[in-house]
Amino acid sequence: MSETPVKQQSTTAFYGQAVASFAVAMAATAIGIFRLNADAWVRGFLAIAVLYLVTSAFTLAKVIRDRQEAGQIVSRVEQARVEKLLAEHDPFQKL
What we know:
Elements: H1 12-35, H2 40-88
């Protein structure tokens, strides 16, 4: 009667690729800032800006994921209510 959605889970390869990609991007950025021909305070400012950008991106991704999961929960509750009403309804019962 009710269809339970299949749990979506990333593969190990996808997870590994995402971690490796993040590590390479952070390392390349750190090397670029370190090798930049500028004063130390400029390099420090850029390093702090990159860290702030990364934390903001993680927060945004979490907020988007949480909102999507909350929407799925609301849909499941509404679907359960409809199924309960349909199961309890007797079309041949006199009003």
